Amino acid sequence: MKKFLYLFVATAFIFSCSTNDAVPESSDAITGNWNLESQIVDNNETITDCTKQTTFSFESDRILRRQFYTMPNTTCVAGNQIISSWLHLGNTKYQINTNGSFNEITVTFLENNTKFSISETNSNNNVTISVFKKI
User: Greatest CA separation found in the chain?
Assistant: First the structure.
């Protein structure tokens, strides 16, 4: 009888373990796939048909996949996909972690959370406003 009890406890323990315990899933408004819709640098629209193909995918397991498109010559080219992790810090603040480099961004949701914008200022004080639309 003791062997049966030990076997039962061991079996129950094994089946109670879950491989999905490490990262809780997110139902954050930013979760989903987004296309670059507009990019304004110092009050000038700079988006092209090529750069409009840029996508951000905020996955519910807090993985961010970014695919940028550029036109270095006359051909639209996809760059390497950048895989990062993301964390909602509260309110409109998000943290992006790419290979140990942390970047905090402020996101403004628009049109019933179907769009969001990010404003960034570089070291030359150039302001870039990027608007993404949910796809």
Answer: 79
Any bridge partners for residue 96, and if so which?
86, 103
CA distances from 27 to 12, 22, 58, 62, 77 (A): 31, 16, 11, 10, 32
Distances (CA, A) of 48 to 42, 80, 128: 16, 19, 15
Indicate yes or no: pTM above 0.85. no
CA distance 19 to 131: 36
Identify the CATH number of the domain in which residue 109 sits.
2.40.128.20
- Structural domain for 102, as ranges: 25-134
pLDDT digit string, tens, across residues 77-98: 999 999 999 999 999 999 999 9
